[in-house]
Amino acid sequence: MTKDQHQALTSKGVILKQPESIFIDDDVCLDNICAGATIYPGCRLLGSTTYIGKGAIVGGESPVTVKDSQLGDNVVLAGGFVDNTTLLEGAYAGDGFHARPGTILEENATVGHTVGLKQTILFPFVITGSLINFCDILMAGGTSLENHSEVGSSYIHFNFTPHQDKATASLVGDVINGVWLDKDPIFLGGQGGLVGPRRIAYGTVVSAGIVLRRDVTIEGMLLSGADAGNNRERPYNFKLYGPIKGVIDNCVEYIAQISCLYAWYKEVRSLCLPNQLLNGATKHLEQVFAERMFRLNELVDKLKLSVEEAGSRRTSGIFRAQQSFIDAWGYLEEKLNASFYSYEKLPSETANLLKTHFDSVGSYTKAIQTIPCELRETISSWLNSNYDKKVKYEKTK
Fold first, then answer.
1. Span 264-276, pLDDT tens digits
2. In this predicted model, what pLDDT tens digit does every residue of 279-302 receive, in sequence order?
3. Which residues contact 43 (CB under 8 A, 6 or more apart)?
4. CA-CA distance, 383 to 193, in Å (whole number)?
5. Can you tell me the distance from the alpha carbon of 189 to that of 154, in angstroms, rounded to the nearest whole number?
6. Which fold, 3-223?
7. What angle do CA 123, 125, 129 make, to 5 degrees?
8. What is the pLDDT of residue 392?
C-alpha cells in the first residue's frame, strides 16, 4: 500500500491493520472502500469494480484476495479468495472461502470454512457448513436466520458428468417463489451430495449421507435411508447419452429462473442497492447465463457424437429424442439469448410505491417480508409474466 493510499483511506475512517502488509492495486477505486471497513494484514485488493461497504471485515482470520468483487455493509470475509463475486449486506464467509465468477451471496447468507463456490447463488438466510463444494447451483428457502435453508458439512454438488459436460446446474428452491422470503427451508444433510441437474422443492429434508440423483418436486418430503441399489458392472460407452429430456428440461428451467432473477435485480433490487453492488450482481448473473448457454452448446456437440456413435440404433426413441433436441437447439438458443435482456419492465407507479416502501423500512429482507398485499400481488404478477415468457420457449419444441 502506498503512502497516498494509506492516507486517503485512513482519513475517511477505513481501519487498516498493519497497512504495510496490505496490497491495493492501482486500478482499485479508493472511493469504493467505505468508512468503517476493516482490512487485516496480508490482504490484496484488485480490480476496478472492487467495493467494500461500511462495517465490512476483510481477512479477520487469514489473508484475503478480493478481485473485482463487491462486499456490502457488514459483510465478514474471514479468509480466502473471491473473484467476480458479490456478497450482500450481512453475508458471512469463513476462512478458506474460494469463490469464482458468477457467485452471489445475498443478505445474511452464511458459509463455513473451506467452502468452494462458482456460478452459485445463495438467497438470504441460506447457511452452509464447512468443507463444501457447491458450484453451479441456486439455493433459496427459509424466512430468517432462525428458520433457514441448510447445507451440511462435507457436501458436494456433482456438476461434471462422465460424458465430460457441465449441463448440470441445479435449482434448490426457485426464484419465482423464493424472492418473497416466506417459503419453507430446505435441508441437505451433511456427508451427502446432489447429482445435477436437479430440482428440489421447498420443505425438502434429505438425511445425512445421501447422494440424491433425482428431482424432488413435491414440497415437504423427507428422504432417508440408502439411495442406491447393489453395485453392478455393465458395459459403458462415454460417447453415448441415454434419455435426455429431464436434463434439457432442468437446464432450460434453470435459465428461465436466472432470467427472472436478472429482471428482479434490474427492476426491484435497483430501488434499494448501491450502484456498485447492483452492477456487480447483475454482471455476475450475466456470467451465469452465458455459462449455462455455453454448457448447453457443449452438450449439443456431444449429442451429435452420441447419435453418430449409435449407428444402427439411432432410430430408437432415445437417439431420436437426442436428434430432435439437436435440431431444435438453434431456435431455442436464439430465443433464450433474445429473452434474457428483454424482460418486461416493472410499471413506474408500482416501482414508485415499492421505492417508498424500501425507504421507509430500510432493511431489504424486512421490506420484502412486509410488502402490502396489494403491492405484492402486482409485483408477483409482473414476475410471473416474465417467467411465463421464458418457459414457453421450452414447450414450443
1. 999 999 999 999 9
2. 999 999 999 999 999 999 999 999
3. 22, 23, 58, 59, 63, 64, 65, 66
4. 31
5. 9
6. UDP N-Acetylglucosamine Acyltransferase; domain 1 (2.160.10)
7. 100
8. 52
